[in-house]
Amino acid sequence: xxxxxxxxxxxxxxxxxxxxxxxxxxxxxxxxxxxxxxxxxxxxxxxxxxxxxxxxxxxxxxxxxxxxxxxxxxxxxxxxxxxxxxxxxxxxxxxxxxxxxxxxxxxxxxxxxxxxxxxxxxxxxxxxxxxxxxxxxxxxxxxxxxxxxxxxxxxxxxxxxxxxxxxxxxxxxxxxxxxxxxxxxxxxxxxxxxxxxxxxxxxxxxxxxxxxxxxxxxxxxxxxxxxxxxxxxxxxxxxxxxxxxxxxxxxxxxxxxx
Length: 258
Ligand code: MN
Fold this sequence. Notes:
Bound molecules: manganese (II) ion
Number of strands: 10
Strand order of the largest sheet: 4-5-6-7-8
Distance between the termini: 10 Å
Strand content: 15-25%
Structural class: alpha/beta
């Protein structure tokens, strides 16, 4: 990632490794100049993702343990902590308070607390965080275990209340917004309230569908256009704003520094 690269889009939360042909998709993102934070869902996926992406100037792999998988993969938390020592991008991590994951909620809190503490010790870590039905606890743990000059938190697909998003912004959090959020009144109100210097875009592909097809990082170009529409700004101005935010985030993680 160089300061002079002319980016067309930003996907700060994408599951490249769950797409059918990751190397082809990485090549496509490079050709189309889409910067991607590629999340993983288990620490065991890290070596393969690292291999695929270590040469890429656009697609950057993160090490993660998805909260929905903590129940069955709790034992991989030690490995996750170890890998945070070598990888400055971390995700997907966080909490899910939905009924089907409630039974291991305490384990999720333990894993997320350890992720924050480990990131705080190393410093210069960027986290992309899942917070479905758990926004308050996510904010509590971020505030308890980390400081924004050491750990940069991005709340992915945030669906908490306006009061909670304001609290998170005050704690230094960034927000990656997607097509689903841009479609609902609630999501739109939330996005409008986010400070402009904390706004990023994402697709959460391939999980999210757009017009009944699976989404891809290339959709982040349209998301930027829709975001500009919502904010009543020209798309060039919005792209510039998100580019500045994105460069700050990548620099925080030591990416793009020569
Ligand atoms: Mn995800």
